[in-house]
Amino acid sequence: MTRWLAEYAWLPEQPEPTPDVLIETAAGRITGVTPLTTEGRPTTGVEVLADAVRLPGLTLPGLANAHSHAFHRALRGRTHGGRGDFWTWRDRMYEVAARLDPESYLALARAGYAEMALAGITCVGEFHYLHHGPDGTPYADPNAMGAALVEAAAHAGIRLTLLDACYLTASVAGEPLAGPQRRFGDGDALRWAKRAAAFDPTDAHVRVGAAIHSVRAVPADQLATVADAARERGVPLHLHLSEQPAENDACRAAHGCTPTRLLADRGVLDQHTTAVHATHPTSSDVALLGESRTGVCLCPTTERDLADGIGPARRLANAGSPLSLGSDSHAVVDLFEEARAVELDERLRTRQRGHFTVGELVTAATSAGHAALGWGDAGRLAVGDRADLVTVRLDSPRTAGVPAAGAFFAATAGDVHQVVVDGEVVVQDGRHRSVDVPTELATSIGEVTGAHG
């Protein structure tokens, strides 16, 4: 058993952090959570704390990054100059996608996932469609690229939900995959399902889920095949939804309805499905998502970086869609920033403040994200949950003088100084214990892009 004494801890159902909390862990689980003060008075003797590991600052549950494309990390700082939109950015992304193989993908993802660990992320949902060789020919192991991601997460010390994505066409109209897109495809949904089902890693840190890339990439008559395969396996299903207005327009032209309506009519939406982005839904779309209890993963730093727009986060939550968060393209890896942006973008859109409580934002960054990835036993500092502890400094230039309750709005990923995943210390004193993150990022990105430094 390990005993941890948190200066402040964010406990479930509490509106603000609780001071002086003893957290006991064993075999990767939380076995005890005991506040040591009541109304400012000690409730237990100091002697019981002699063997406790002190956690100065604010301790949160592990953060969940519910939407990641690991190879996009190589694009950071390389796509920001000049004008353009999502579609021009996508051309640059395809250039990187064309260069990766299992070995280089392992190196890049290992460094990228370790960067996430430094940011307090204890679990990542990898939206994975980089399946085959550059010309579309499968590797000898058809799931070699997925296996590289599983190994990368193990090295980084975080859990992984590999969301194996079905990606079959280049447009809603059914244009065939071409160029770098060829390596994404399996031919049809049945062949996708067969390949995806064959990948069944036994590692404790990984689960395999499913994904529909988008209504652009999976024909309408094959959407149900993917959804049914996910349900038969009892795994989460994720999909990109209404990320750009052009997607909505193309769907209306081809099918006479919005992407959300198409997915609803094909039986895709339910409480085990998570729609990523949902930036441009109609009012009817919002109602469909909420009524079906479909989750929505917001990725505000990517949505603003790509000029996609601001989604209706408050309306989606009010309709009944649980909100989670993702770093998507990794323009920024900072779940504190993603959470703040949910509130701050609503302020920009409405010119009013106070749309989300801090507690709601913490939930989106922790338990809701883990649930969306199939880890319902994580994301809370509660007995029986996984022993994930993320401790944030309260004495940094950003957090000094800030009350613990306000730290979630003040802190950045750089203020995380200790991370425990399943009871194991992964980050200590702000440094990853097994990965030299800056060096490995620079090396792996240099190999992929051909540029160093």
In what range is the share of β-strand residues? 15-25%
Q: What is the tally of helical segments? A: 15
Number of strands: 18
Q: If you average the pLDDT, what whole number results?
A: 95
Quickly give the structural class: alpha/beta
Residues in helices, as a percent range: 25-40%
Tell me the strand order in the biggest sheet.
Answer: 3-2-1-6-15-16-17-18
- The Cα radius of gyration reads 21 Å
Q: What's the overall geometry?
A: globular
Q: What gap, in angstroms, lies between the N and C termini? A: 44 Å
List low-confidence stretches: none
Main sheet? 8 strands, mixed
Structure description:
The protein has 453 residues and is α/β, with parallel strands linked by helices. It has 15 helices and 18 strands. The protein has helices at residues 86-97, 102-118, 144-156, 189-198, 223-233, 245-255, 259-265, 283-291, 300-305, 313-319, 335-350, 358-365, 367-372, 407-410, 437-449; strands at residues 2-9, 18-26, 29-35, 37-38, 41-42, 53-61, 63-68, 121-128, 159-166, 206-212, 237-241, 273-277, 295-298, 323-325, 389-392, 416-421, 424-428, 431-432. The strands form three sheets. An eight-stranded mixed β-sheet has the order 3-2-1-6-15-16-17-18, covered by helices on one side. Strands 7-8-9-10-11-12-13-14 form an eight-stranded parallel β-sheet. A two-stranded antiparallel ribbon has the order 4-5. The longest helix has 17 residues, at 102-118. The protein is globular and about 65 Å long.
